[in-house]
Amino acid sequence: MEFLFRHDHLRPIQDSLLREAYDSISRGMHFLAHAPTGIGKTDATLSAALTYALDNEKTVLYLSPKISQHEMALKVVRGISRKYSRNIRTVEFIGKQYMCAHPLARRLKGEEFYELCRRMREKELCPHYVNYLHDERGSYWPLFADTVLDHSAIVEKAEELEECPYEVASDLIASADVVVADYYHLFSPQSGQVFLKKLGRQLNDVVLIVDEAHNLPERVRSVISYGLSTNTLSRAAREVMGLDPEVHRILMNLADELLALDLKPGEQQAIQHDDLYSWLDVNFSDFADDLEDLGREYLELTGKGKSALLRVARFLRGWDEGDGPFLHYVHRWRGGDVVSVARKALDPAYVTKDIFDQLHAAILVSGTLTPGEMYRDVLGLNPRRTVIREYPSPFPRRNRLNLIVPTVTTRYRYRTPEHLQKIARLVRKIIDMIPGNVAVFYPSYDYLSSSLPFLDISDRPVFIQRSDMSPNEIAQMLSAFRANKGRRAVLLAVAGGSLSEGVDFPGNDLLGVIIVGIPLAEMNLEIRAMIDYYEKKFGRGWFYAYIQPAIAKALQAAGRVIRSESDRGVVVYLDERYTWKNYKRAFPRDFEAVVTDMPEVYLREFWRHENS
């Protein structure tokens, strides 16, 4: 059959990905694909989905974790539309704040913006929203010359009409063939219901594509987790002091209960779901209603953009959703004067299973979606309707070198000055063997900070990632790092951080990556609870909750160095545990690495061929 594919030719691996994805969709199956960089997975998956969906009256929903990743999907659909002269109605749908035409939208934080928007809509104070309400046109599509609409085109047209861009986009998606959006729009319980209502389709009429799907479990867990600190309770009590003395008393009593808990600074302690009901002896639903009313009254009286009362209300509603696969705990912060109470989700399938069960079909794709069985289990996909495939990298093996050096480790008992010195010397030796920019990824910010006094690279331009860097600071640092490739610059960053994923270093911008240790999560109460939960559910607790997420972070960091067929580069893994069986099984099946105590021998030979 002929697939809707925008290029003249399919690459061999891309051809297999497209055909197997289409076959799965046509059979109503879910398709999990580990597809490394360079295969052309966006072209393949969208072509498969569109070919089926347009012939079978289905809607394609393409979800990614970042707005910046939408452009590639739009480019693919636009190319298909032009090649086949088909009007494939496509809408990029993003968060309301990013589309808002109100001048305050860019200056307000999320919470402040959404509260302002709600108030202005309810009172019909926003002229753009009022104009939208009174617009009687049947469809906005005839206003656009193109049928593949990014959010900027929608905003521009809506501003010409002096109408709300978000509402215009909402009308457009109701008759779209393809919608490009964020994970949040489908997998947030509250936002998902609103989004599906706007989409106007049942889930069994949707073909879902989840890009960078290795991110989905953690993103869903974070969406359905809640936390509340005594600081927030105290702010809420101050806000309500002059409005309702009884609510003020209740909030202060809860703060006092939490502060009186027998916890040492930094200590966490599990509690029962019902414990909070005994500390806060009210009907949670009714009390949350009262807090919302009081919070909005406070905002009206003060003209402020946010309220701690509303934050407490949201927390109580989240806590009141019932028991289930959640960890409930209290935590005294390291300073000792603040205590928080949290409800942390352990299992994303609590949300995702029902969604995947209802979908016509889904494609989950990523360059680090291994092992596929784990993602199937964790997301709650039905094994009987799930196909798992793992594709090899399309890049020439001669262009990449993976080394594992087992003479060092970041295991806790080896975190001594002597061992830090040993690792630092090894890092310096490897850096000297790489004729260009190098990125060194550490397992945590604390370990990076501890390593700095021992690392002598003062003769190079050095760029260091901090935990508090803004997106703008990150962008400036990356630009400077790339500009210094002629001076063999060094980037010191954290595996699992913003610089280890979704950042491209094409050509000679990066020739080597060193991964120091294994970026395992801190063994806190939440991680232990996840290990216990997945051990009981699948018998794979340590692997699913602890080992595999760490290896995924390492692989994402490693993926920065080879981004095209012409790129050459090396990745050096510094830790003996990379040779252990339980860690090795988290790597893709086609992963090959040389285990050596003398990395300089292999590095010298690799770069000698480069220069010959």
Structure annotation, total helices: 25
The largest pleated sheet is described as: 8 strands, parallel
The chain-level mean pLDDT equals 93
Give the percentage of residues in beta strands. Answer: 5-15%
CATH architecture of the domain at 397-611: 3-Layer(aba) Sandwich
Q: CATH superfamily assignment of the domain at 397-611?
A: P-loop containing nucleotide triphosphate hydrolases
Q: Radius of gyration over alpha carbons?
A: 26 Å
Q: Structural class, please? A: alpha/beta
Strands in their spatial order, largest beta sheet: 4-3-5-2-6-11-1-12
Which percent bin holds the helix content? 40-55%
Q: Tell me which oligomeric state these chains represent.
A: single chain
Distance between the termini: 46 Å
What does this structure look like?
The protein is α/β, with parallel strands linked by helices and 612 residues long. Among the domains are: 72 residues, no CATH class; 120 residues, Fumarase C, Chain B, domain 1 (Orthogonal Bundle), CATH 1.10.275.40; 215 residues, P-loop containing nucleotide triphosphate hydrolases (Rossmann fold, 3-Layer(aba) Sandwich), CATH 3.40.50. Helices cover 46% and strands 15% of the residues. It is built from 25 helices and 19 strands. The strands form 3 sheets. Strands 4-3-5-2-6-11-1-12 form an 8-stranded parallel beta sheet, with helices on both faces. It has a 7-stranded parallel beta sheet with strand order 15-16-14-17-18-13-19, with helices on both faces. A hairpin with a 6-residue loop joins strand 9 and strand 10. Helix 12 runs antiparallel to helix 13. The longest helix has 19 residues. It is globular and about 75 Å long.
